Amino acid sequence: MVRHLFAWLLKLGIFGPLILGIADSSFLFLPFGNDLLVVILVARNHARLPFLVLSAAIGSTLGVLLLDAVCRKGGEEGLKRMMKPRRLEYFKRRMTNQAAIAIATACLAPPPFPFTLVIASASAFAYPRPRLLGLVFTSRAVRFTIVGMLAIRFGSDILRIAGLPATTWIMLGFIALCAMGSAYQVMQWVRRSRGPR
Q1: By CB neighbour count within 10 A (0-12 exposed, 13-18 middle, 19+ buried), where does 47 fall?
Q2: What are the E-state strand segments in 14-85?
């Protein structure tokens, strides 16, 4: 099923990163998902790089908008349900003193950097939405441009490796791990939201 889903996203061309970007940047746990999709699509057709970067950056920004809508409404009380007090204090300090740096770093850094928690914290502590979305779009565009340039440089090797049967099994295992991580994250949020109020 997962293999068919990824194949479907590949068939969508420039719209694949848009859809995956929305899912990846909102509530799902899909590390490297959109990076891999962009790499394969750029490796197949180098001329599409600007369109794929734009699509992935817009998708990521729309996903953040969904996350922002929920977390901004919940505020600090909502964050208390998502993280432990010590971690909450750390994010509060970061959002007070260095919010823009934290957001840009979260958008550029690969996992396990806590992208979702940084965005949720920025929203909960009322970082201005236009600035948040602008930072996300710009930083993600830079990230996907770098990923795309690497795909152009190493594209033939990437496509050769992607065609190996072992790669299919590794990717299936990785995607299953991401699905379990997403389910765990959602269960944690639901459990904490039902806790004492």
Answers
A1: exposed
A2: none
